[in-house]
TrEMBL record:
Keywords: Cytoplasm, DNA damage, DNA repair, Methyltransferase, Transferase. This enzyme catalyzes only one turnover and therefore is not strictly catalytic. According to one definition, an enzyme is a biocatalyst that acts repeatedly and over many reaction cycles. SUPFAM superfamilies: Methylated DNA-protein cysteine methyltransferase domain, Methylated DNA-protein cysteine methyltransferase, C-terminal domain. It comes from Streptomyces tirandamycinicus. HAMAP family: OGT. GO terms for molecular function: methylated-DNA-[protein]-cysteine S-methyltransferase activity. This is Methylated-DNA--protein-cysteine methyltransferase. The lineage of its organism: Bacteria, Bacillati, Actinomycetota, Actinomycetes, Kitasatosporales. Pfam families: DNA_binding_1, Methyltransf_1N. It is found in: Cytoplasm. One of its GO terms (cellular component) is cytoplasm. Belongs to the MGMT family.
Length: 168
């Protein structure tokens, strides 16, 4: 059964959705994490059962991250979301260290899609269903400018500031 829970954050109320018993331990594997104002965030609750305790471990990690005490998440994601290309891009994004950034072009090179593939990489990053915990906010333009973010550029800027990744 698909469930959801909310977590208060400095960015507003986050909506976490997942599948119960999607793990061998019988817990809830995270399917999506939405930020306020994100396209589809309001619908994330539709047809799902509220399960406030389903993501308590993830909520604790998020609170620690937002307070500056956690730099690397340890979260089990539900399998199967995204195309093969999207999953390759998302894995490359997951490898960007806390407090660092990478350009869309650099991600394209890492997944073997340099050149014209930069646009496809941007599209794949834009479809990341796990904002914050899969750190697509760490991907910036080649010129250092902040470019699109499903949670909005102010949220991207705030997250990069929290991590100390913004150039002075």
């Amino acid at each position: 059964m698909t469930v959801y829970a909310t977590v208060d954050s400095p960015l507003g109320e986050l909506v976490l959705t997942g599948e119960e018993s999607a793990t061998a331990a019988g817990g809830t594997a995270l399917v999506s994490l939405s930020l306020p104002g994100q396209k589809g965030a309001a619908e994330a609750r539709n047809g799902r059962r509220l399960a406030p305790g389903a993501f308590e471990e993830i909520a604790e990690q998020l609170r620690a991250y937002f307070s500056g005490e956690l730099t690397c998440f340890s979260i089990e994601f539900a399998p199967g979301a995204g195309t093969d290309f999207q999953q390759r891009v998302w894995r490359a994004v997951e490898e960007i260290p806390y407090g660092r950034t990478a350009s869309y072009g650099r991600i394209a090179e890492r997944v073997g899609a340099a050149g014209a593939g930069v646009r496809a990489v941007g599209t794949a990053i834009g479809r990341n269903p796990l904002l914050v915990v899969r750190p697509c906010h760490r991907v910036i333009g080649a010129d250092g400018a902040l470019r699109g973010y499903a949670g909005g550029l102010p949220s991207k800027e705030w997250l990069l500031g929290l991590e100390g990744a913004l150039a002075p």
